[in-house]
Amino acid sequence: MLELDGSFGEGGGQILRTSLALSLITGKPFHLRNVRAKRSKPGLQPQHLMSVRAAATVGQATVRGDSKGSTDLVFEPGEVRPGNYRFDIGTAGATGLVLHTLYLPLMLGKDGPSELTLTGGTHVIKSPCFHFLDITWRAYLEQFGLRLRLRMDRPGFYPRGGGAVQVFLQPCAAIQAFRHLHRGPVRVSGFSAVAGLPDQIARRQARRATVRLKQHDLEADVQEETWEGGPGTVLALALDTSPAPTLFFGLGERGKPAERVADDAVDQVFAYLGAGEAAAVDAHSADQIVLPLALAKGPSEYTVAEVTLHLLTNVAVIRQFLARDIVCEGEEGKPGRVRIA
To answer: Please, are residues 315 and 332 in contact by the beta-carbon 8 Å criterion?
Structure first.
């Protein structure tokens, strides 16, 4: 049984999710202590607890320590069975992070498709929103030979949650290696959406984003949208990078002006472009694609706009499960390069 320390590196839920996924894929059990030790609320919170229980369900695992607030977890995997599953987080916890736990075990080396229904948060802070998953993350996975389809039936914002996402996963015999070192020039498009709030908020978000982008010689077509559900707002900006579009977003919250929501997304665009054309993959995708590529046949290599502690931590966890040479070049907080031999 692998002994893992959840206080290592960024000390958050990513250590748990990567460990669960790799345990199901490799068949290796693990004991994780100090779960989410560096978070303001340590231990298993609802979305992390759902990741554990969902992994146990699809992989027929034996689990000890799967209770809210638990900081000590033992996970012994069984056989992963593709199929139709429904998981309700019960809060605004991120549906995308539960998906990150399950997609590889249900797809890699399986002989049948799977369908997931995930309810909870679709647009919540400190997690990939639905549109990032559908536009950026899914496009990268398709480059690796991983085919999936996402559909948002209704949005879910913090604190109410209640969002619903359908995920359709196709089996994958083998993951393809990947090389991406240069991004090239970009164009910007996007949307400004409100759910259960006045339309003027969407207009203010869109106006702020287009004005700031234009000041940096970037023309953007930002569409205004009104969704059912909520309350909540989101401003998303997509760069037409190849081979996968790169999406950045800002989210509204109580007391936060619409202009600040737009600024959150625009600032990320500027930071990404400021890293230069030799920094191809955005910081968020960089740590999310390293896991499937560590399971690919053959070497992979990609440059990143920023070496984050999330990326470094994920690499360290992967090394615990896989005998794979993964090197991350560059200083934390600066552009770098990932090599998987």
So the answer is: no
User: Model confidence over 265-296: pLDDT tens digits?
Assistant: 999 999 999 999 999 999 999 999 999 999 99
Q: Is 310 a catalytic residue?
A: yes
- Report the number of distinct structural domains present in the chain: 4
Query: Chain-centre distance of CA 16, in angstroms?
Result: 14
- Could you give the angle at the alpha carbon of 146 between the alpha carbons of 25 and 187, nearest 5°? 135
- Burial class from Cβ neighbours inside 10 Å (0-12, 13-18, 19+) for residue 140 reads buried
Class of residue 170 by CB neighbours under 10 A (exposed 0-12, middle 13-18, buried 19+): middle
Residue 120 has what pLDDT? 96
**Among the listed residues 129, 126, 140, 282, the one whose alpha carbon sits nearest the alpha carbon of residue 191:** 129
| Shared domain check, 91 and 72 | no
Which of 123, 180, 284, 310 is the catalytic position? 310
Per the structure, the complete domain to which residue 244 belongs is given by 188-274
pTM over 0.70: yes
Question: What is d(CA 297, CA 158) in angstroms, rounded to the nearest whole number?
Answer: 39
